[in-house]
Design a protein that fits this description.
By secondary structure, the chain is an alpha/beta fold. The chain has 14 helices and 14 strands. Helices cover 36% and strands 19% of the residues. Strands 3-2-4-5-7-6-12 form a 7-stranded mixed β-sheet, sandwiched between helices. A 5-stranded mixed β-sheet has the order 9-11-10-13-14, sandwiched between helices. Helix 7 links the parallel strand 6 and strand 7. Helix 1 packs across helix 2 and helix 11 packs across helix 14. The longest helix is centred in the middle third of the chain and has 18 residues. The model has no long low-confidence stretch (mean pLDDT 97).
């Protein structure tokens, strides 16, 4: 264990190194560039390889290839680059390729304001590619959590053989705070299941174990495998029938939902006596938490719920967090997570409180946003 002082971007890089990162491909884009710059110096010291690619499309495809060769792999970008990665993310989903994509959100649409913050990519992170699937999305609110949730993202990717998104933002990226770094022996590190010995016969790369996750044969290890981007059977062969389609799509979703207990995390405070529950996430939750404390000082029985996992959500656990009669969702966008919270608390009063701002919303901003619903 070692204590230091670092930025959120540095913490993500250190978290990846702790988790066992061995390959990084990326393209510079504000406000994520420091992740690649930091790893360019550090990753070779850990026996890894970093390549600056010609663009984000090349980056994500290189990461997919490296993962199939057995390397824990990651890329980082911001909104415009994240959009360019959408097609290849779909390839990683259907080929069940474990990897981590960091999106350091900035204002949009399009190129927006490169140096300013936002939380507008929430739904894009869930469903950026076409088709039916579920991929985990984590959202840190501090430098320490940027480190911790990056490790969790790698572990989730390896455990479930899936892409995982870390959804940071410009505030967390450039925030400097104390950071505790862990030695690999002192923190849980998950490695993917792999078949032990090639038989010389074709190996079915998508034949699942009882947990619905197939062991992953690695390129260059003697396995004869077919990795197919079309709807495929367990052998990797194109399977355009209803039964094959249903089987694949259900399995790649259910393998994540079966481990919801592992994937989903939240932070709940002051919820036992709450009449009003403030729900938030990421950097905006920092101000929402302070606003919650201020409301309690004013005599309002306010509770605080912060979502660390933005997808998939544990509906039952969220509902049981509080019996508050009013739920107010505070986020730095036009109201996206609000749609889920309204669905989950459908028998209660649920209100959106968007605080659209290019800077970190202040506690006063949050109080003004929630005041109409108190």
């Amino acid at each position: 264990m070692r204590k230091t002082f670092a930025s959120g971007n540095m913490a993500i890089a250190e978290g990846a190194l702790t988790a066992g990162l061995k390959f990084y491909a990326g393209y510079p884009i504000t406000p994520s560039s420091e992740i690649m710059e930091y790893l360019a110096e550090k990753l070779p010291e850990y026996g890894g390889v970093l390549i600056q690619m010609e663009d984000e499309i090349a980056s994500i495809n290189a990461v997919i290839g490296a993962s199939w060769a057995g390397a824990k792999a990651m890329t980082a970008t911001s909104g415009p680059g994240f959009s360019l990665m959408a097609e290849a993310i779909g390839l990683a989903i259907i080929t069940e390729t474990p990897l981590v994509v960091v999106n350091v959100m900035r204002a949009g649409p399009s190129t927006g304001v490169p140096t300013k913050t936002s939380q507008s990519d929430v739904l894009q992170a869930r469903w950026m590619s076409h088709g039916d699937y579920i991929i985990p999305v984590y959202s840190p609110w501090s430098v320490q959590e940027a480190y911790d949730l990056t490790i969790k993202a790698f572990n989730t990717a390896e455990l479930l053989r899936t892409p995982v998104v870390v959804l940071s933002d410009a505030v967390i990226a450039h925030l400097w705070e104390p950071l505790t770094l862990m030695e690999r022996g002192d923190v849980e590190i998950v490695n993917r299941k792999t078949p032990v010995d090639p038989t010389g016969e074709p190996y079915p790369p998508y034949k699942p174990d009882p947990d619905l996750v197939p062991p992953m044969p690695l390129f260059g290890r003697g396995f004869k495998v077919l990795v197919e981007s079309l709807i495929h059977d367990e052998r990797g062969f194109y399977s355009p029938r209803d039964d094959g389609y249903r089987s694949l799509v259900k399995r790649i979703s259910l393998k994540v939902l079966k481990r919801l207990d592992y994937v989903y995390e939240q932070d709940a405070r002051f919820t036992e006596d709450a009449d009003v529950l403030l729900v938030s996430y990421g950097s905006t939750a920092r101000s929402t938490y302070l606003a919650t404390i201020e409301l309690r000082k004013q005599g309002v029985k306010a509770g605080f719920l912060r979502l660390k996992t933005l997808w998939p959500l544990d509906d039952d656990r969220i509902r049981k967090t509080s019996n508050a009669r009013k739920i107010i969702v505070v986020e730095n966008n036009i109201g996206k997570i609000y749609l889920d919270i309204d669905r989950i608390f459908k028998d209660r009063e649920v209100y959106p409180s968007p605080v659209l701002s290019l800077e970190l919303p202040t506690p006063r901003d949050v109080l003004e946003a929630v005041e109409p619903w108190l």
